[in-house]
Give the backbone structure.
Amino acid sequence: MRYHCLQHVSFETPGLLIGVIREKGHSLRITDISQGEALPSTADFDVLIIMGGPMSIHDEGVHPWLRAEKELIAAAIREGKKVLGICLGAQLIAAALGARVYPNPQKEIGFWPVQWTEAAAVGPRAAGVRPAGVRPTETVFFHWHGETFDLPAGAVLLASTPACVNQVFRLGDQVLGIQFHPEVTPEIIRAMIEHEGWELVDGVDASYVQSAEEMLALAAGPDFSFLTDWL
């Protein structure tokens, strides 16, 4: 299978995804949009992965490539390609499918538990949305976002947090959107703090914002098992 990853900034890489994809015998190409690299065509890949980034999906005036990226995502879905979006990537998928993307009531930054819905525990393993063995009711993952999205039409909600209801959704076995960051390594977390640490300030509601010190102390790597079947 030919995997293609869209990367929006140099420091938010596919991280842990790279090893899993290659261990399964798939090829992986990465387009770093921040370096001016051209978007692929849908003929160039079987699976499209869209990473996170500090920009909003609405920032087309600053980042005009966002419009073309949304069109590529929509085309990939129409053509039956598998599509995975993480953080900004999930928001771009939602927007490409006609759903609303908007500011969350509060930022969610740091390691916080995700509660799995009943829908995540049923259905074929091919959907790749539940850990092997006995599925826990919640799993701690790394988060860094200030926006959220409505579920696209026909999507099934798989996970939530108290701070952000729509954390994971899927459309059949084809499309998976994840608001949190299952791919991060300690190096990625350190880079995000370096480049985006200005967000770690007191706000109207900082209940779900950890300090840099707290995040680095917890940066041992997430439970990645829920995603390995999907890849």
Observations:
- The domain at 2-228 is CATH 3.40.50.880 (Rossmann fold).
